[in-house]
Design goal:
The structure holds two protein chains of two kinds. Chain A is mainly β. Chain A has three helices and eleven strands; from the N terminus they run βββαββαββββββα. In chain A, β2 and β3 form a beta hairpin. In chain B, the strands form two sheets. A five-stranded antiparallel beta sheet of chain B has the order 1-4-5-6-7, with no helix packed on it. Classes of the chains: A mainly beta, B mainly beta. Chains A and B meet through α3 of A and β6 of B.
């Protein structure tokens, strides 16, 4: 036993300098779900952006994957305190999807197969900050991780990166999605540790 | 991880003064009635989500923070509590 106490710092976990406060590093990819995992055939997959005026822009799977794609390498941070660094994805930038969308609304509600929702400011989805991702680590995205395609907004806690996303609805006012209505933070910035309401 | 409503006994005991797993519920969506123990529960994190065993709609969610518990009765038309 060493002479110098390590103090009461708790069980020391694998740590890295790039972790937001309160996070620990994992090399796994934990699966967290609020319900059963939907299996969505590619020929029945679609994504619709609905403006505040009710105008709809819809892509099927062939149309989505025909759009210019990007290779994305980002750190991801789950509100349950795990972080995974340097994850690699392939997907379509939301800048591309919003190119022809005319909107004056500032907020978006992401909708998923199964009824999950999460709210995000539009400015957090543009300028190279968010994607519809359909590959992880060079492979098609597993259903357990949101496949065939999920929203990827890596600068916010990962509950904002809605699995099985099928709709983006423009809103003038910020309204809570599923976890936000259940006690989690409306914005969810991991670097400011915005986990719960009031943080 | 999917469990049944018995998994919520401890968390609900912190909120209610009675044993809740035998309490009745009515689903606001499909009107199914049953006892809390029969709910389909996804847990533990980011919170527990209890779904109707008949239609799959969310009956309630329970989120624990360091300082409070949020019980959100999303799809609960009625709770029937034994005295």
């Amino acid at each position: 036993m060493g002479i110098i106490s390590r103090g009461f710092g708790g069980r020391r976990r694998d740590s890295a300098p790039d972790l937001p406060p309160g996070q620990y590093l994992t090399h796994d990819f934990p699966v967290l779900s609020a319900g059963p995992t939907p299996r969505i055939p590619l020929d029945r997959w679609s994504l619709t952006i609905t403006t505040e005026a009710g105008q709809k822009h819809t892509w099927n799977w062939a149309e989505l994957t025909a759009l210019p794609s990007e290779e994305i390498t980002k750190d991801i941070h789950c509100v349950t305190k795990w972080s995974k660094l340097g994850t690699t994805w392939k997907g379509v930038s939301l800048d591309t999807l919003f190119e022809d969308v005319e909107t004056a609304a500032d907020y978006v509600m992401a909708h998923s197969k199964g009824g999950y929702t999460t709210n995000i400011p539009l400015e957090d989805l543009l300028d190279g900050q968010a994607w519809i991702a359909y590959e992880f680590d060079g492979e098609p995205l597993d259903p357990e991780h949101g496949g065939p395609a999920r929203l990827l907004v890596p600068h916010l806690y990962f509950w904002k990166s809605a699995k099985w996303v099928n709709g983006l609805e423009m809103m003038h006012e910020d309204e809570p999605g599923f976890w936000e209505a259940a006690g989690y933070h409306m914005y969810g910035d991991p670097w400011h540790e915005q986990r719960y309401q009031g943080d | 991880m999917e469990l049944d409503g018995n998994a919520l006994a401890g968390d609900l005991a912190e909120v209610f003064a009675i044993e809740m797993t035998s309490a009745g519920f009515t689903c606001a969506g499909c009107k199914h009635t049953g006892v809390v123990a029969t709910l389909r529960v996804w847990t533990p994190v980011p919170g527990a989500v209890a779904r109707c065993p008949s239609c799959g709609d969310v009956i309630f969610s329970l989120v624990r923070t360091p300082s409070r518990v949020y019980l959100t009765l999303t799809g609960t038309a009625r709770l029937e509590l034994p005295l």
